[in-house]
Amino acid sequence: MRSFDAPGSGSPEKFYTLNEVAKMLNVSRTTVYRWRLRGLEVVRISGVVRISGSSLQQFISGHYAPGEQAVGA
After folding, report:
1. All domains in the chain, ordered by first residue
2. What is the DSSP letter of 63?
3. Residue 28's Cα: distance from chain center in Å?
4. Cβ atoms within 10 A of the Cβ of 47, count?
5. 3-state SS assignment for residue 67
6. What are phi and psi of 43, to 5 degrees?
7. Which of 44, 63, 71, 73 has its CA 20 to 30 A from that of 26?
8. What is the pLDDT of residues 1-23, one digit of tens each?
9. Are 56 and 14 in contact (CB under 8 A)?
10. How much is the CA Rg of the chain, to the nearest whole Å?
C-alpha cells in the first residue's frame, strides 16, 4: 500500500494494488480485474495499476445489496 497526498486534501490518499485489494476482500485477483470492467476506478502510477481507498469504498457501497454483510461490518 502506498500513500500519496491527494490534491486539495489535508490527508494522504491510500492506493492499493490489485493483489492487495484481492487479499483484503478475500477474492481472486481476476475478480478485482473484472470489477474494473464494472466501474471500479483505477489509476496508473508509473505504469502500475493502483486503486485508491476512496474509489474502492465507493465501488463497494454502490454494489452492496440488502441482506449481505458489508465489508468491515
Report:
1. 12-62 (1.10.10)
2. T
3. 14
4. 5
5. coil
6. -130, 155
7. 44
8. 555 555 565 678 899 999 999 99
9. no
10. 13
